[in-house]
Design a protein that fits this description.
Layout: E1 8-16, E2 19-23, E3 36-39, E4 42-50, E5 53-57, H1 60-65, E6 76-80, E7 100-110, E8 113-119, E9 133-136, E10 139-146, E11 150-155, H2 157-161, E12 173-178, H3 180-190
Antiparallel strand pairs: 1-2, 1-6, 2-5, 3-4, 3-6, 4-5, 7-8, 7-12, 8-11, 9-10, 9-12, 10-11
């Protein structure tokens, strides 16, 4: 389980069909083989590490559901280690199980923040509510407004400068994970 609070931005050093090597710093401190790591909000298993880098495998299902297959050498990625039981839950409950991808349709300044509109698959829209949580590229964000097939989030300067959102623009695909609580409520109500 993750919180959606990005710890650092790493750099893709090698990207192959079913694996990726990422250069990182602080997230490597207590890393062990088999540990989970959220990469752009996708929970992946560390299969090798050393020399300031770690490697993860990419399953075909992961490549189908996420934007990770579009990454190449030099791309920057958001990294977060799993939540420890003793940690504060600073964002929201994020599983790292990406529900699908959206596409950035507009970015506009508002004060010192940016309002980002993201087009989302219609199947995800019932789980998105104004002032609710959504993970975008693994970042816990609050939904500002919801439309029929899109939503907006407000990104503060700190988040922009400490994540890979600063490199995203109109047309970029982004990983989306909706609030798990909404999915459980729907499942229970269907009974």
């Amino acid at each position: 389980m993750f919180t959606g609070i990005v710890e650092e931005v790493g750099e893709v050093k090698n990207c192959q069909d079913f694996g990726m090597t990422i250069e990182a710093g602080g997230v490597l401190e207590d890393l062990k083989l088999g540990d989970s790591m959220a990469v752009n909000g996708t929970c992946l298993t560390v299969v090798e590490f050393g020399g300031g880098q770690f490697r993860v495998d990419l399953a075909p299902e992961t490549l189908r559901r996420t934007s990770l297959g579009q990454l190449s050498e030099g791309n920057r990625v958001n990294l977060e280690r799993p939540l420890a039981v003793s940690d504060r839950l600073g964002g929201h409950i994020v599983q790292g199980h990406v529900d699908g991808t959206g596409r950035i349709t507009s970015v506009r300044p508002e004060g010192d923040c940016f309002i980002i509109r993201i087009g989302a698959p219609k199947r995800l829209m019932p789980y998105i509510v104004e002032k609710g949580f959504i993970a975008v590229e693994g970042i816990s964000l609050t939904v500002v407004k919801k439309g029929a097939a899109s939503f907006t989030v407000s990104v503060i300067p700190y988040t922009l400068s400490n994540t890979n959102l600063q490199e995203k623009s109109v047309g970029h695909r982004v990983n989306l994970e909706v609030d798990i609580l909404a999915k459980y409520v729907e499942s229970l109500m269907a009974r």
